[in-house]
Amino acid sequence: MVLTGCTAVDQPQEAHEDAAPSDAGVPRGPYDIAAVATDTRGEILDAEPLHTLLPEVANAAAEAHRVTYRSTSGIDGRPTEVTGAVFIPNGQAPAGGWPIVSFAHGTTGVASQCGPSQHSDLLGQASRIASLLNAGFAVAATDYEGLGAGGGHPYLEPITAAFNTIDMVRAAKNIDASLSNQWAALGISQGGQAAWAAAEAATDYGDGLELVGSVAIAPAADLSPITDGEPPWDLDVFQIALLPYVIAGYQAIEPTASFDDYLRGSLANGFGMVEQCVGTAWFGTALALLTSSPEDIGPFTEAAADGIRDWLTSTALPLDRAEVPLLVLYGDRDTVVPAPWIDRAIERACTGGTEVDARLIAGADHFSIGRAEESNTWLRERFAGAPAESTCPQ
Fold first, then answer.
1. Same domain, yes or no, for 45 and 182?
2. Which residues of 163-178 are buried (b: 16+ CB within 10 A; e: fewer)?
3. I need a labelling partner for 291 at 20 to 30 A (CA). Which of 124, 167, 201, 360 fits?
4. What is the average pLDDT score of the chain?
C-alpha cells in the first residue's frame, strides 16, 4: 500500500483477538465456490507485447506481455476481466521450466487507469519485478480487478485479490506453456494482503497449480484498528490520507455507502484521491489536508462507523489456514500498518496452524523494508523443496 502512512496505535482489538480461522474455510461471499467455472480461469482474452519499460526491467526480461485474463470476483463469484503483465527472464530455463512468482503490487490507486501494466514505470513496481527476474523467476504481475479493465476496484477485499493473484499464474502459463507448474506469491502492503490471502485460498481455488509458499511484506492484513473508538474517529493526518481508499473499498461491497458519511469540506468525495493514481495525487491531497478542519472528519453516523468497522473486521487476515509456508517481513517503525497490528494477525495465523516465519526488521518503516535478496533466497529454498523455518510458538 504505497501510502503516506497512519499512526502506530496499539489499541485493544476485540474481533479476532483469540480466534483461530474457521474450519469452514475461507468465506467466499454469497455464492458456492464449487459452482465457480474452472475451465476459463486464467483464460487470455487479450495480449500484447510490452515494449516501453524502464531499463532495469527491459534488460532483465527476455519477453514482456500485457494481458487481459479471466478471473473471479470474491464478492459474488461472477467471472471478471483483469489486466496484468507476464515477464519471462533472460537465460536458459531450468528443467521443468521457469518457476513463477505471482507479484501483488502495493497501493497504486483505485481508479481504472492505476494498473501498473498500463505504465512504462509500472507505477513504482519495476525494481522488485527486476529483482525477481534476475533471481531466475518468471513474474506474473496482476493489476487486480478494476485497475485496467474497467469497473470498480474492490480495494482490500482479500478474496478477490487472492483469486486475481492465483489466476494471474494461470494466465502466465497460457502465455508460455513451458513455464513451471510451481509458483509462489510475493506482495507488498496491499499486495502483502493479497499474497497472504492467496496462500489461504490456494487449497480450494488453486487446483492444478503447485503453490510452494507466499511472501507478505508489510501486509495490510488487518486495518480494523483504524476504526477503534466512538465516532467521530480521532485520526491524524496520515490516517486521513488512507481513509479515501478504505472507503472506496467498502463501497465496492456496500454501494450505498457514501463519502459524505465520513468526509466533508475540502475532504469531501475523497479529496480527489480516488480519481487519480498514487504519485500524481500528492499535491491535491496535501492541499486538501492543509485546508481541512477536525470537523471535516467523521464518521458522522454510528451506522456508517459500524458498517466500515464490521467490513474491515470481517476481511481481516487470517481467514483460513494456509497449507504452505508464509514469510512475513515488516518494520518496527511502520506507521501505515503498525507492527502490533501485524503481530496480532501472525499470532492468529499461528494459532490456526499456518507455518509462519515472521521477521520484524529493526528501523524499517513501511517504505524502507527492502530485503529483496532475503525474500528471493527464501523463495529459492521453497522452490527447491527445502523445509521452511517457523517462528510460531511450538
1. yes
2. bbbbbbbbbbbbbbee
3. 124
4. 88
